[in-house]
Specification:
The two termini are 30 Å apart. 46% of the residues lie in helices and 18% in strands. It is α/β, with parallel strands linked by helices and 406 residues long. The radius of gyration is 21 Å and the shape is globular. 49% of the residues are buried. The chain folds into two domains: 10-170, Leucine Dehydrogenase, chain A, domain 1 (Rossmann fold), CATH 3.40.50.10860; 179-331, NAD(P)-binding Rossmann-like Domain (Rossmann fold), CATH 3.40.50.720. The chain has a seven-stranded mixed β-sheet with strand order 9-8-7-6-10-11-12. The chain has a five-stranded mixed β-sheet with strand order 1-2-4-3-5. The chain contains 14 helices and twelve strands. The chain binds nicotinamide-adenine-dinucleotide. The site of nicotinamide-adenine-dinucleotide (NAD) has 20 residues, from strand 7.
């Protein structure tokens, strides 16, 4: 990401002072979190919240629970959120949080106490107008409900807009669960139009069968694409004639994995990336397309459902091959866009129909795609660099207009 930032800043001719402002997080908080464990002993956890940039509005970004989470990672992810929010032009800056812990070894009670203590510890920088967290790795709707309740208890009123990704009954938004997959489907549709291709003649390989990959595949299947392969962490299934994705998802729900789906052959996840197809949707995890396999990728179009699935060196190889890549900060921004809708609905106290959410999401995704595409043509660069140019320019212009407070 640092490389993309530098290339884009250079193309924009951004002055060095502003570059330094945009590279540095606005605020970082590290907190010690004493928690009473079920065995009666006290354990002290470490938590982080980084607010990369709040010039365009409250910070937005998930909270992850993982044994190896660290300040550098949270810092990088918070900057990523700044650029993602700016690409889709939602009035948020970037933030990210994390707690070093292993949720698999913790009881629900321990997780609740940890979440509440973390929320209390970062209270001073939290709030609907300051910083609005969301779920991330190993956190979910329940975690957000605890954050919302703890914050509300402190401020003495129910404040649903302090987090997004909440359960529907606590002010969550309709359409949020499908939002990222829907954004993937919509950006793929827009990219195909530019390439003069049609869904029904398009073979798609999807990596990942979770919230982004699984739902993305279902929506694309509904639009008429031929999904020839989908994978999970255990391996991939493929059928050159196209998979019946609703049946695949039902099988996954029943058995917990894709393997064993009748009417499909099985292969490794790595091999699936190299299958003949027109579109590849990496929607699992980072660093999946590397200098080792980039040369063997057949797809003409890559839609980055996951964050950071393509390494810098693979990017260069694919660009040379003429592969179009719709970058993560655009392709998977459907999630943060509907999070923005959730925040808006909470603040209005008026909740939208699913149709309104989906229509508004479509408008934003199509406009953002067009904005990035126009930047790509103007600066004669990749879509990734174009997305960074667009977002950096949006944030920089806010600084120019607001001036620097002294
Ligand atoms: P998830 O946990 O719901 O699903 C992940 C899926 O990937 C699972 O099916 C898992 O089995 C599979 N997987 C893991 N490692 C794999 C591998 N090596 N090969 C193939 N499959 C593998 O997660 P998700 O919410 O779908 O997130 C996926 C990616 O999208 C992550 O990079 C995440 O940061 C990013 N993302 C998610 C959202 C969102 O709204 N959920 C928004 C933006 C970005």
């Amino acid at each position: 990401m640092a490389r993309n930032f530098n290339v884009a800043a250079e193309k924009l001719g951004l002055d060095e002072g502003l570059r330094e402002v945009l590279r540095r997080p606005d605020r970082e908080l590290t907190v010690a979190l004493p928690v009473l464990m079920d065995d009666g002993k006290l354990k002290v956890f470490t938590g982080y919240r980084v607010q990369h940039n709040f010039s365009r509005g409250p910070c937005k970004g998930g909270i992850r629970y993982a044994p190896d989470v660290n300040l550098d990672e949270v810092r990088a992810l918070s900057a990523w959120m700044t650029w993602k929010c700016a690409v889709v032009d939602v009035p948020f800056g970037g933030g990210k949080g994390g707690i070093i812990c292993d949720p698999r070894t913790m009881s629900l009670g321990e997780l609740e106490r940890l979440t509440r203590r973390y929320t209390a510890a970062i209270m001073d920088i939290l709030g609907p107008d300051r910083d609005v967290p969301a779920p991330d790795v190993n956190t979910n709707e329940q975690t957000m409900a605890w954050v919302m309740d703890t914050y509300s208890m402190h401020v003495r009123r129910t404040t649903t807009a302090v987090v997004t990704g909440k359960p529907l009954v606590l002010g969550g938004s309709r359409g949020r669960r499908e939002a990222t997959g829907r954004g993937v489907m919509l950006t793929c549709r827009e990219a195909l139009k530019k390439l003069g291709m049609r869904p029904e003649n398009t073979r798609v390989v999807v990596q990942g069968a979770g919230n982004v990959g699984g739902i993305g595949a279902e929506l694309m299947h509904r639009e008429g694409y031929k999904i020839v392969s989908i994978s999970d962490m255990y391996g991939a299934i493929a059928n050159e004639k196209g998979l019946d994705i609703p049946a695949v998802m039902a099988h996954q729900k029943k058995t917990g994995r894709l393997a064993g789906f009748p009417g499909a052959r099985e292969l490794t996840g790595e091999a699936a990336l190299e299958l003949p197809c027109e579109v590849l949707v990496p929607a699992a995890t980072e660093n999946q397309i590397t200098s080792k396999n980039a040369d063997r990728i057949h797809a003409r179009l890559i839609i980055e459902g996951a964050n950071g699935p393509t390494t810098d060196s693979a990017d260069a190889i694919l660009e040379k091959k003429g592969v179009m890549i719709v970058p993560d900060i655009l392709a998977n921004a459907g999630g943060v866009t509907v999070s923005y809708f959730e925040w808006v609905q909470d603040r209005m106290g008026y909740f939208w129909t699913e149709q309104r959410v989906n229509t508004s999401l479509e408008q934003i995704m199509v406009k953002s795609f067009d904005d990035v595409y126009a930047m790509m043509q103007k600066y004669k660069c990749s879509m990734r660099i174009a997305a960074y140019i667009l977002s950096i320019d949006r944030v920089a212009s806010v600084y120019r207009l607001r001036g620097v407070f002294a």
